[in-house]
Predict the 3D structure of the following.
Amino acid sequence: MRRPALYSSSRPARTAQSSQPTGAQLNAPGAQASAKPRIWRRVSPSNPKLLWSAIVLLAAMLALSISLSLRMGQRKLTQEDIDSAVLKTMETQVMPSEYARAYEKIQPSVVRVVSYIKAGRLRAEKEREKEREKEKQAALDPSKPKVKPKPPAPAIVKPADPKDDEEVEYGVGTGVVIIDKGVILTNLHVVSGADRIKVIFSDGLESEARITGVQAEDDLAVLQASKIPDDMIAATMRSTNDLAPGDKVLAVGFPFGIGPSASGGVVSGLKRAFRSPEGKQEMTNLIQFDAAANPGNSGGPLVTMDGEVVGIVTAILNPTPARTFLGIGFAVPIENAARAAGLPPF
């Protein structure tokens, strides 16, 4: 490629005559000096290395100038600046409630407990219950004459019904994992008399379970799941020694099979007593709470705002046949429940 001209002249080109010196000019005084040819100094193109060095130097000087200006303009943060930033964050972002944080912590440890019984056995149980109820009513009504029992008639063997071996859902309740090896606490009345027990973990894993321990006086049962999730998380248990009326609590479970569901309330009282509607059992030293609980919540955890378990929901007080929540629930203190599982006291 042709290199472009380094210089250009704006003067018109001189003719050949004007460019050659005459004899008179040569003989004139001082002609030798003026006739000496003029030397033009040619400027060479810039060296690329020098050019890049200049660019780098300028860039460094610019960066240094910016850095110095920022340092001079920077001021130290004050407490007022920090408070303003925190207030701005609280105004623009919705923070989770205490109940939401407690639920998030306990939810991975809550399981659904389902008990099954064979249809034939369930039908026989219902028939026996009806007979016992009739006998009870007859004993309470003195107007009816006493009927002497007749000798038993020969047993009639009925043909086996294929449906008798079918399993039907017998009860739905809640449980809480207290040891990450799959040890679960629940209520005894949820699994008592069941032919088969199934637990469903928070991640959807279903597993068979068996009863490994019973504490009937506290309506507690300990289950061992045959399968557990890989990332099984056990609940954290907390002593009830510093629990007081008015403390916030959360009840988590499967009321009427719906859930897991969470309901918030407070501790209403301590060391309460409760007798079952059938009058078969009386429990003492219970935690009274007002968080909503219904059939299906049985065996679920009662937790603090730190997500720590302080009790196992076991009963609700309702003098009507509805057996639904009226504002008074009871939970077994976790110290009793842990003892049922063979854990040391707090």
In short: Residues 205 and 303 are 24 Å apart (CA to CA). The longest strand covers residues 261-275. Confidence is low (pLDDT under 50) at residues 1-21, 23-45. The chain has nine helices and twelve strands.
